[in-house]
Design goal:
The chain starts with a strand and ends in a 7-residue tail after the last helix. By secondary structure, the protein is α/β, with parallel strands linked by helices. The strands form 3 sheets. Strands 1-4-8-9 form a 4-stranded parallel β-sheet, with helices on both faces. The protein has 7 helices and 9 strands; from the N terminus they run βααββαββββαβαβαα.
Length: 256
């Protein structure tokens, strides 16, 4: 199972082409470590989403979603959204329970916290702002200590999180090579540095490994031609190169 940024989707596609059974981002694209951790908790203890979780998207989208999912889960009615979200959750929780390897791709240390009162996510970090007004959120950057604290129990239980029905997993952390230009050059690099330091500490406190996706992009594939036309995402050739390195990292075989 892979969870995290859009880069994890690209790698998972190549894994599937190689014959691996892979469940890809069951909540949609997730960017920050806090939202990924919330998703892991939900997969280990899959209590369903309810009407209280539902949020009407902004910018005239006229669609319902919630703050746990990416916008591809949005639907015209609450009933449709909940049916789809809970069906996906049930299926993903079953896959999570038997998954042997879990790959978590952190995209950014920046996150958004929902401010209005009266919602289950009030005061909590959201996975997606759903095009809601900016005034409803505060923007903050997670620290290394905060991220390590979020994942300490997860690493030490090897993903079981107190659920004896969930099998222990090999946990692999990585940092997405996708640029976040809205943060500026310095802001993007500071964010990535926080993520890398967090992963380093997490591999020191429990049975987890780190694969250097971001570092390969920066040190071995640097240059404008390493990126797609948008200047943010790795090119197809770069994704394949990083994937080859991942195959080597996994011992030359991905038939787990």
């Amino acid at each position: 199972m892979t969870l995290g940024s859009c880069f994890s989707i690209e790698v998972a596609k190549l894994m599937q082409q190689d014959g691996c059974e892979v469940v890809v981002n069951p909540f949609g694209t997730l960017f920050n470590p806090c939202s990924i951790r919330d998703s892991l908790q939900r997969l280990a203890h899959p209590h369903p989403f309810t009407e209280k979780d539902c949020v009407m998207m902004g910018a005239g989208a006229d669609l319902w979603c919630d703050f746990h999912h990416y916008t591809r889960f949005a639907r015209p009615t609450q009933i449709e959204f909940l049916e789809n979200a809970n069906r996906s959750l049930r299926e993903a929780a079953q896959s999570y329970a038997r998954a042997k390897v879990l790959i978590l791709t952190f995209g950014t240390a920046w996150c958004f916290r929902y401010l209005p009162q009266g919602h289950p996510m009030s005061g909590r970090v959201v996975a997606n702002c759903l095009k809601r007004p900016a005034a409803e959120f505060s923007r903050e950057r997670l620290t290394v200590d905060e991220i390590v604290s979020l994942y300490t129990d997860f690493v030490q239980t090897r993903g079981c999180l107190g659920n004896s029905a969930v099998c222990p997993k090999e946990i692999i952390f990585t940092v997405s090579p996708v640029r976040h230009p809205a943060d500026g050059l310095q802001g993007n690099m500071a964010s990535k540095s926080i993520l890398m330091l967090s992963c380093e500490k997490l591999t020191q406190i429990g049975p987890a490994r780190y694969f250097p996706s971001f570092e390969i992009m920066m040190e071995q594939l640097r240059g404008a031609d390493a990126y797609a036309a948008d200047g943010r995402h790795p090119s197809d050739a770069s994704v394949r190169f990083i994937y080859q390195r991942f195959q080597e990292f996994m011992g030359g075989s991905l038939s787990f």
